[in-house]
């Protein structure tokens, strides 16, 4: 578990002026987390666009440049509050072209003006430089990873999901606000290398021995996906025709030394696209690209440029090659990037459904047995150390440290599917992935998902969602002999009717068990939920 660097808000009553941290070359690993309770000063801001322009020095492993943050201010305020870790030296800040005062304390930028800031549109430009923190265990404990490829070329990747965009650019570091108008990155590097980034490559400008890559996305995007990777890349291109007939470019930024693996990765991506589109609708970013970048660490769901590194090893399923790493991160293009949680508290939606997507892939590739096998693994690996939904406005660290948002989140979807049936579950899941009220600029919570499935099934599913997601309980089922060939089946800690598969005299039937229980006649002890649709404990009395 990561130790946290707790953030203390700098007192507003102090005289705010430009301050800089003395230890800007400190390479100590930072233990930060993203999210938590949204500060009122940041609740007053609506981020519209980020523009990041940085010169990356590969030899000193440093960055130098500026970030422009376009935002709308709802109410008049004395302070604009941004997040940026203390390792950078901030040299100047302007707001709408005017130099302003600021204080850089406790990984936050407090920006002030004698006349205050009136409501409306603001362009804040922060000029800064420094050495980014090195990633301790990417992508889980993030930062910058500086490596050499097997030919000795520089190779760099960024992972900041846990810590947030503040690890390398000033931002509003909270999952509830994304730049509705997208982001621009202009990254300058040695000209023999390439930059892989989000969206579309606008241009590459080369002067002497340096090249500036301008990447642009017009879609809304999480701040932890606004990043780039650098390497001695070969760009292998192809094209995919979506389920709706749109043609989307595929661009694989693969190291030159690994180009022989590119064709298989791209063909796997096409096959996986068809599976994901079947269940979740068309690929979300048809106006940009299907991007993949090879990195020196496990993959991540960076929007339109998913990162990937499994040493090109595949598992064979029913004669087809499959990479869980390649598939899971790609599923996040729907579940994380298109359908985004309003708060880290509801992270099971992104991670759990992306993990459940792997089970659906197993079904498509290997049939029911392959589906059952992976779901059984998800069930066995449930830890139940803490609830998946801990409340609201919690940090990334609090949610991820338990681990159950993956496997238990997936198994919850499996249980929900059994409860309401395929004829309701599958189209409702696709609706969640495609309806404008849940996608792109919108955010979702557990309540949103529950209400959607409740309405579709015409059942009150709130108790079921709460039981699975907000507690660590498992169903306590008792089978009690009541007399000759008479058995009572009762759920002792759940007080609404639930369907169960019950084996009676060797025949399996789907039976609704009400809160008061049910009496069955059987010559043998009935067997309950032998296929494992629920997390449960069965006691025979």
Could you give a quick summary of the protein structure above?
The chain has ten helices and 30 strands.
What does it look like?
The chain is globular. The chain has helices spanning 40-43, 262-280, 324-331, 347-366, 368-380, 396-400, 404-420, 422-434, 446-457, 462-469; strands spanning 45-57, 62-73, 77-83, 88-95, 98-99, 101-105, 108-117, 120-130, 143-148, 154-159, 183-190, 194-196, 200-207, 210-217, 229-231, 233-241, 247-255, 290-294, 306-308, 315-317, 320-322, 340-341, 443-444, 475-483, 486-491, 498-504, 507-513, 518-521, 527-528, 536-540. The chain starts with 39 loop residues before the first helix and ends with a strand. The strands form nine sheets. It has an eight-stranded mixed sheet. Strands 16-17-18-19 form a four-stranded mixed sheet, covered by helices on one side. It folds into three domains: 1-231, Immunoglobulin-like (Sandwich), CATH 2.60.40.1730; 340-469, Neutral Protease Domain 2 (Neutral Protease, domain 2, Orthogonal Bundle), CATH 1.10.390; 475-540, Immunoglobulin-like (Sandwich), CATH 2.60.40. The protein has 541 residues and is α+β, with helices and mostly antiparallel strands. It is 22% helix and 34% strand. The longest helix is centred in the middle third of the chain and has 20 residues, at 347-366.
